[in-house]
Amino acid sequence: MSDTRRRVKVYTLNEDRQWDDRGTGHVSSTYVEELKGMSLLVRAESDGSLLLESKINPNTAYQKQQAKAENYDLALSFQEKAGCDEIWEKICQVQGKDPSVEVTQDLIDESEEERFEEMPETSHLIDLPTCEINKLEEIADLVTSVLSSPIRREKLALALENEGYIKKLLQLFQACENLENTEGLHHLYEIIRGILFLNKATLFEVMFSDECIMDVVGCLEYDPALAQPKRHREFLTKTAKFKEVIPITDSELRQKIHQTYRVQYIQDIILPTPSVFEENFLSTLTSFIFFNKVEIVSMLQEDEKFLSEVFAQLTDEATDDDKRRELGMDDLQVRSAATDIFSYLVEFSPSMVREFVMQEAQQSDDDILLINVVIEQMICDTDPELGGAVQLMGLLRTLIDPENMLATTNKAEKSEFLNFFYNHCMHVLTAPLLTNTSEDKCEKDNYQTAQLLALILELLTFCVEHHTYHIKNYIMNKDLLRRVLVLMNSKHTFLALCALRFMRRIIGLKDEFYNRYITKGNLFEPVINALLDNGTRYNLLNSAVIELFEFIRVEDIKSLTAHIVENFYKALESIEYVQTFKGLKTKYEQERDRQNQKLNSVPSILRSNRFRRDTKALEEDEEMWFNEDEEEEGKSVVTPIEKSKTEDDFPDSFEKFMETKKAKESEDKENLPKRTSSGGFKFTFSHSASATNGTNSTNSKSVVAQTPPTSSNGSSSKTTNLATSVTATKGSLIGLVDYPDDEEEDEEEETSPRKRPRLGS
């Protein structure tokens, strides 16, 4: 089944200000090296050709709306809202915006934009104050004030670049430090931090040069929020040591390694964690570091002498253990270095890594496959905070993300790699989860195990959102949701919330395959138990559970609503601080009334004569429907009702019809549906010899209906499947009836309700 979430039409605005349809395709967001940034790609669904390749620029105004806008020259029209929301979230992430906004940037008047573009680059777009100590406060105010305006940021960046202003500021830093001018140093911290947030690569080239970078680090030591300045320069020059396993003779390569380490230190250690609105300000800094690393790897790859020396020492038996440890072996530093290298490879080309592991699978056992080794390293991380596991989980997520898989016409990479992953690797990933929930309780509930299981659940939740039938088959075959919901009993609330989030994502798909799996397995029970055990505490767990049921109510998911009301309403009706559960019951009753009206509108001749299909046959049909392979989701999963030949064979005369009807009049009254004490319907059927004389031929027109009766004690009872049949033989009308003992079977089924701990009290 093709993914329609990302199916779009591409429109461009022509010279006459009219929208031209450029074609239909599928959109994805991925990093494009040539454009040096996250970009939107649309490939035609007809031949896979590229309809659109557009970089998500940090300062471009994007708008999310129902109709094509007049102030934009490009528009994507999504087939499904979910796909639009996903792409919008990616755009907002790049621009550092909250996804709830409708427009990412203030619209610029065209005349103002044209005036800005017409200005010569050499002109002074912003008049900078004189670079003097007594002007530092004014300079700091100026730099801080422009950050909210893309146009003013651009103007200031050009002014700083043209006047060589940064080097002058760093000379003032040296003077302030010599004079111990604390106020001036605090202003310089704000100035340099603001210049970094201008997000301009040309300024970074100046700031991170050998001549300037240590003074930039020095300015960033004097954070006004700190009582004492940090000693970052001391760490970089004295504590941090550059160790060469194999001597590097290329001076340019050595300089690039030093620069990359120091810039990474500025980003990771010195600068505070940016808010969601500031992440956009440092996107170019991230790109600067990334391309530096790419350049380092390329230079090493081209240095044949260096690589030859590395492999020669690795294979030489005379190499001592200390030397070999610097190249390999199972120690934490080497593992960290290997993780970093793997990270660079995945970031640089996830497709190349995927191709390697699929080729590896043809020659190696599952245990030693690269991805399984990565998963095992994640599972066995000894760090109490699982820092390495978090990093590895992020890399796995990148590898299994369909968005960065090549969008070709045959979609070979996506299907082949996901088949490989689910056949060879998924069992390794889920092993800790399945092991820890084998006895319907958390075997280990310590903090580190809980954190690991939370990481695994995060990755599985991602799979639910992006992998459609692969993860669906896995969940159902392994009964995975039931095992996950065991974790609702964990003493660690964050783990219980992860389990609940996994279920919420499944329900959010509004997929009836999943809904049937949930209702058949009575999988709401652990969620409701957790809600009841939580008592009157108003906390995150309470809110998350309520939100799940509110989603079912708002989206009017009928099968789940009926299951919840019929089985759990008595336990939930006392919860009145929200109207969610009363609302669910109202929805349920409205739907039941609609079904009753439909039933009452059926002619009595159809309502009076019924037969019940064999229970075993029904269960077999239901099981076959439930286990239907996803690849055939587009096909009907229920056998279509064939058009009956008897439609043309009804009695020729109205008199014969009325005679038959009168003969059955008393039988009609007995067979009308009777309302039960619980508000459902119970059907009774008469018995006649016509059921055994072979009149139940295949030439019959069948009408199938379903009602969900509820037992008086609130337990779940099986759905009664009904069928009415009308058969005509040689112009006469004969009613087919039910088999005997059906009511006895119903009573037996209703006397064994599923046991539900804590819900009966």
Helix/strand layout:
Blueprint: E1 7-13, E2 19-32, E3 37-44, E4 50-55, E5 74-78, H1 81-95, H2 110-118, H3 136-146, H4 150-162, H5 165-179, H6 182-197, H7 201-207, H8 213-219, H9 232-239, H10 251-270, H11 283-302, H12 304-315, H13 321-327, H14 332-348, H15 350-361, H16 370-379, H17 387-399, H18 412-424, H19 426-436, H20 447-466, H21 469-478, H22 480-485, H23 493-508, H24 512-520, H25 525-534, H26 540-555, H27 558-572, H28 580-600, H29 604-608, E6 610-611, H30 615-626, H31 654-663, H32 665-671, E7 674-675, E8 681-682, E9 701-707, E10 720-729, E11 732-735, H33 742-750
Antiparallel strand pairs: 1-2, 1-5, 2-3, 3-4, 6-10, 7-8, 9-10, 10-11
GO molecular function: protein phosphatase activator activity
Protein name: Serine/threonine-protein phosphatase 4 regulatory subunit 3B
Biased composition (Acidic residues): 622-633, 739-750
